[in-house]
Amino acid sequence: VVEMGQPEHSVVTTCAYCGVGCSFKAEMKGNEVVRMVPYKGGDANHGHSCVKGRFAFGYATHQDRIKSPMIRDAITDAWREVSWEDAIAFAADKLKQIQQKYGRNSIGGITSSRCTNEETYLVQKLVRAAFGNNNTDTCARVCHSPTGYGLKATMGESAGTQNFDSVMKADVVLVIGANPTDAHPVFGSMMRRRLREGAELIVADPRHIDLLDTPHLKSGQHLPLRPGTNVALVNALAHVVVTEGLEDMAFVEKRCDMESYHSWRDFIQDPRHSPEAVEAITGVAAEKLRIAARTYANAPNAAIYYGLGVTEHSQGSTMVMGIANLAMATGNIGREGVGVNPLRGQNNVQGSCDMGSFPHELPGYQHVSNDESRQRFESVWGVSIDNEPGLRIPNMFDAAISGEFKALYVQGEDIAQSDPGTQHVESALKSLECLIVQDLFLNETAKFAHVLLPGSSFLEKDGTFTNAERRINRVRKVMPALAGKEDWQVTMDLSNALGYPMHYNHPSEIMDEIAALTPTFTGVNYKRLDELGSIQWPCNDDHPIGTPTMHEVDFPIGKGQFSVTEYVATDERTNSRFPLLLTTGRILSQYNVGAQTRRTQNQMWHDEDRLDLHPHDAEVRGIKENDWVGITSRAGQTVLRARISEDVLPGVVYTTFHHPGSGANVITTDNSDWATNCPEYKVTAVQVERVSQP
Ligand code: SF4
After folding, report:
1. The 4Fe-4S Mo/W bis-MGD-type domain covers which part of the protein (predicted)?
2. DSSP per residue over 623-663, as a string?
């Protein structure tokens, strides 16, 4: 229950939960938020919202907030409150000592998709300019890094092609590995509106999702594939398109690289990709695959939306390329109502990738090995930048355990809870000589920290978030930072203490620097954002007011590139010991590992994670609704309560991971995407059995 009262003033800002990026009016009484009102002028949400954005903001003033910097006492191991000056000086001294002893590459920094663009930009700048290496990464590593890789390789830009409103022009909506009504609720509602108007729906997902229950749905096809077989499925759809002559050859010949097209065509028409051959792999009836392919290819406008069910696999990047192949072959690119659209999980996944927080890319996806790009940054920053990529997050963990990596600065990301292989991550964190954690709460990662720096919530700072449709929205400060500093100021202070000067008076100055160095952002500044409300990048001389639809005339790489997308089965196999496949997802009222939503009234709507299993699998194990069940994988074990559900297929079980006790990351494997190391969260072979209450 939100405390009500009469607001005295209001400030328009952006929700800090999911990648829809809804605008809200924060109605204020003094420094207190009275309520969050969905903003009618919001370009992403048009006055709509979900329960998270509207009600789950109380975490910002929750009693658990860290209000003072702290240093862990080396003798007693207890936290000691210190001043900002002392904490920053202590952290900087430690980092310097470690670099002197172990070398320049022994330290690194991780930022988060929860942070603003400006904060993320500063962290990667801190790492590159003050630390002197490219050991910078972001939590997008564990969600949408395959999107960046796959879309850049095929269409030349690491971003979705459409704005959200475009779905209202789609005749067919193909949803793969996503559950928009729960994970992206405002966009899910918009999609539902279009489906009620008559658009056809195809869902490729191991689970039955709510969109399939849309009232008055003209046609809803469900392709309930086995977890881990996405690439076989998308290849089968493309096989039908090619062998039944459903391609848009006018588009292919005009817009695509024909050499890559012919190689792909030779590959995809092989009978091993036929629906009949693929049925045995995916478990989806061949006829269903044929009908779905025809529905998609014959539609005047067909749009693909996908989520983590595509990316969090050992073939995540291959699947993204497979989706791009399908869209290009059918000419579903470059106008409203079509496209390839990743539904980004967190508020600023797109932005954190755009801002150069990957170890191989500077802001704007400019590779560190590109001399011209690197030199542009070097001349503005006044340092030389390594031309070799640095360490990714999993490489940092490995290097910490082997003793080569010694210190880490983590801003806004609970890696101990959200990254796979919990025991491995904890071993890595224990091995560090200095772990600096900057966060709102004493999270799981902070338990291993040596220095704790209070973070600031979205209500306490200025900046921008970039949503899943490349829309840059303003985040506006509505109350003073609880601990006296905004996140960007902390990074700046740390840099100054390390001897690399940073002097910004306001995040708008950071955005001006980003715009000066990033060709797709040259027209972005706070004044224009205030005037236009929001801007979809690219925004530059070619696109002065931004770009709602990408690739209308050509691709940034000239011609679209087809890719050969061979299906390779994941190493994670079921057997008699581990006969079920576990997959994971989210629900509407909660958010990721729950650090925010568990500290709000939303908690009452979902007070524990459960394991969904099919009635058949429950019956053969003697499991009834609400029974406690042990879930054992090759990696570990956890205990949850059971929910019997026909939403999952026989042989598949499903859970969420909103509570620390879910243990989802204790049991997931260490498999990851071949191109980006994105963990394979979505496929774990498990056994489930009834246990007594833990
Ligand atoms: Fe909008 Fe997502 Fe926030 Fe809900 S969580 S209000 S859909 S941005």
Report:
1. 8-64
2. --TT-EEEEEESS-EEEEEEEE-TTBPTTEEEEE--SGGG-
ipTM: 0.99
Q: Which residue's CA is the nearest one to ligand 1's atom 3?
A: 53
Looking at the structure, give the CATH architecture of the domain made up of residues 70-143+348-532: 3-Layer(aba) Sandwich (3.40)
Q: How far is the CA of 466 from the centre of ligand 1 (A)?
A: 13
| Ligand 1 shell residues, CB under 6 Å | 15, 17-18, 20-22, 45, 49-50, 52-53, 184-186
Query: Model confidence over 124-154: pLDDT tens digits?
Result: 999 999 999 999 998 767 677 888 889 999 9
DSSP letter, residue 360:
T
Fold category of 145-342 in CATH: Dimethylsulfoxide Reductase; domain 2 (3.40.228)
Residue 489 is which amino acid? Q
Atom of ligand 1 lying closest to residue 591 CA = 5
**What are the distances in angstroms from CA 559 to CA 334, 339, 456?**
13, 16, 43
pTM of the model: 0.91
| Of 15, 346, 349, best ligand 1 pocket probe by most atoms within 8 Å of the beta carbon | 15
Distance CA 125, CA 132 (A): 9
Interval between CA 656 and ligand 1 midpoint (Å):
18
Q: Which residues contact 402 (CB under 8 A, 6 or more apart)?
A: none
Q: Quick one: average pLDDT of 569-587? A: 87
CA Rg, the chain, in Å? 24
Tell me if 275 sits within 8 A of 292, measured CB to CB: no
- Residue 198 alpha carbon to ligand 1 centre in Å: 25
